[in-house]
Write a structure and sequence with these properties.
The protein has 471 residues and is α+β, with helices and mostly antiparallel strands. It has twelve helices and 24 strands. The chain is globular.
């Protein structure tokens, strides 16, 4: 009888209890310090609430040299990220930091910057970043004091300034800018908002995309003008097929479940994603996508708005008074931020993704993701952090059980989020408050709307063509 072995996950989750089961690959490699052979250990794992990573650790038994690096193993983020953190206390120096190869680190008060790609990616702390810079500057100081004493004196003075940062006589600002979007700074007040950290996302330029190895189809075609794609038979190309004109009327598309092949986000095994276009009463059309993995049993659902971005953003406040409010339907888009006032808890826009669920389902999903995110370093957290998280989860569990009154706030600048009203007769729902507002310039910039031209967008190109033809 044939038996089919289960496909193991390519990036298993990082879990302290199951760490002995994670298989590390050992490779013999040359030590860059003494040129003898050492051992490099590679571990492919998934950091909860972050992404897939490749952790590399090198050690040399001859000279004792050690080196640790981290490389992102998943997809490059759609946007770059800039993280500005105010360092004021000793706890801030212990903030955990994940930085990639493409991260530039800047300390504003010293006008000092570590350029991107000058250091390898690593998991460290704010203090660890300063110590690594100091070690790098001190490395050639003995020789420099003999050959260039004046430069060595200036470097000694700068090292003293770096070391004084750890004394925290004055607060300083640490800024990490990463075009790959794969950097992270710990929030010691989680799940509350971090008042000392400002996170902004930005669109990459064409040059930055090229640095990451990202090219558009037009750019690839320009480099290979003579290359032609061979036609793929329809029975082979199962993912994308051209739809024959008139084959799928809109009425039939609403009732049809479409299916396409994809890979499981947990174990990377092949699976199918079901997609359906449906209409939410009193709201708009949405696209619901559900994935079920037969290999690991993962079940996910995601919701995308069927229309475009609304003219105004929406802020929805719903008061959860008991079990009746738990049954409200909720559509949360990817750009929607979630806040629970009584628990002083804020969840960012990308944390829970887009989903169509209920109020109860939203609270349960938020709890699951917070457990994963705090479980990443729970064994090394200080007693104060563990006590705060235990107290928070106790209050959240009481709210999910219906023992605590809550006010949930959904803030969506795209206007594509929705909470069901319990009054079908059109009368106001006392527990539901909906506020429409005009987006700020920064919100439009985040959504890419400031540079978007929706009217007469063809005239500019036509004018250029006419101008070039006249000349």
């Amino acid at each position: 009888m044939e038996t089919i072995a289960e496909q193991s996950a390519v990036f298993p989750k990082l879990n302290v209890d199951e760490e002995p089961e994670l298989g590390a690959t050992e490779i013999e490699s040359m030590c860059m310090n003494c040129q003898e052979n050492g051992i490099t250990r590679l571990l492919l794992t998934q950091i909860p609430f972050y992404k897939e990573v490749v952790i590399m650790s090198f050690s040399c038994e001859h000279c004792g040299y050690e080196n640790n690096e981290i490389q992102p193993g998943g997809e490059i983020a759609p946007k770059g990220i800039k993280i500005c953190t105010q360092i004021e206390t000793a706890r801030d120096l212990n903030r955990r930091v994940i930085k990639s190869d493409f991260s530039s680190v800047r300390i504003e008060q010293l006008d000092f910057e570590i350029p991107a790609q000058s250091q390898k990616g690593e998991v460290t702390t704010v203090e660890g970043i300063i110590d690594r810079v100091v070690r790098g500057l001190e490395q050639d100081q003995p020789v420099r004091r003999i050959q260039h004493p004046e430069a060595a004196g200036q470097i000694d003075e700068f090292i003293a300034n770096l070391q004084s940062l750890k004394d925290l006589r004055k607060p300083f600002t640490l800024t990490i800018s990463d075009i790959s979007g794969n950097s992270y700074v710990e929030n010691p007040k989680a799940p509350q908002a971090d008042p000392a950290t400002t996170i902004t996302h930005f669109q990459r330029t064409k040059e930055e995309n090229h640095l990451l190895g990202i090219f558009s189809h037009d750019e690839v075609d320009d480099k290979t003008p003579d290359a032609k794609l061979e036609p793929v038979p329809e029975e082979v190309d199962k993912l994308l097929k051209p739809i024959v004109d008139g084959a799928w009327p809109l009425e039939e598309l609403h009732g049809e479940v479409l299916q396409f092949q994809t890979h499981c986000p947990e174990c990377s095994a092949g699976c199918d994603t079901n997609m359906k276009l449906t209409t939410i009463p009193h709201f708009k059309e949405v696209v619901i996508m559900a994935t079920v993995c037969e290999n690991c049993g993962l079940r996910t659902n995601e919701v995308k708005p069927g229309g475009g971005i609304e003219e105004r953003g929406v802020k929805i406040e719903v008061t959860v008074r008991g079990r009746i409010d738990f049954a409200r339907d909720v559509l949360k888009s990817e750009s929607c931020e979630l806040q629970i006032r009584e628990l002083e808890c804020e969840v960012g826009a990308g944390a829970l993704g887009g989903r169509f669920t209920t109020v109860e389902g939203l609270l349960v999903a938020m709890r699951e993701q917070l457990v994963e995110s705090t479980g990443m370093f729970m064994d090394s957290n200080d007693a104060e952090t563990r006590e705060r998280m235990d107290r928070f989860f106790g209050q959240l569990d009481a709210a999910i059980a219906g023992e605590k009154k809550l006010t949930i706030v959904l803030d969506d600048p795209t206007g594509n989020s929705y909470v069901q009203s319990l009054n079908d007769d059109g009368t106001p729902d006392e527990a539901l408050r909906i506020i429409r507002y005009h987006r700020s310039f920064e919100q439009n910039e985040e959504l890419g709307l400031n540079d978007m031209k929706t009217e007469n967008y063809g005239e500019e190109g036509l004018a250029k063509e006419n101008g070039s033809g006249d000349s």
